[in-house]
Amino acid sequence: xxxxxxxxxxxxxxxxxxSLTKAExxxxxxxxxxxxxxxxxxxxxxxxYGDRCHHGKEEEILFAGLKSKKLxxxxxxxxxxxxxxxxxxxxxxxxxVEANERYKSGSxxxxxxxxxxxxxxVTFYPAHIAKEDKSFFYPCxxxxxxxxxxxxxxxxxxxxxxxxxxxxxxxxxxxxxxxxTGPDAPPPFRDV
Length: 192
Fold this sequence. Notes:
By secondary structure, the chain is mainly α. It has a single domain, classed as nmb1532 protein domain like (Four Helix Bundle (Hemerythrin (Met), subunit A), Up-down Bundle). It has five helices and no strands. It has helices at about 5-30, 35-65, 75-105, 110-140, 145-180. Helix 1 runs antiparallel to helix 2 (about 35-65) and helix 2 (about 35-65) runs antiparallel to helix 3. The protein is globular, with a radius of gyration of 19 Å.
């Protein structure tokens, strides 16, 4: 297996979430309300899986490895374009977090923002995925030796292995910051 195998498999799961999100958009439009459990789930999915896990491997491992190579101008431009698209997806997801919080607080106008942001994501991701799958991934594998590809694949597995610990270390730290301090407060979590 080459490193783009796991990345393309992740694309398929993202596409499944996009399908579910399209269905939720229809429900939001028909019922004029958002399913709070779905919203929390889709936000977590795009933040953790789509951005940190998937885009993280692309940016921190694949793109970093490619930047050490003499790339064609087309591939250099594509990397910069993909990084910008990742930034846009990250920003849109953060705006969705904020709109969802406003909606939970009773803002009915936030529902329109949720709809627009979800609609953007269900349009954005298929085009982004097609660009990577059809124009970028396979040609970029040509820059690496077999040994480099095997090493990259191992780095992907290591990245995934550490991700759950990173996520929940940050979750505990964030909860601690929001809790009142006092004599009964637990000591702050320190990742060792």
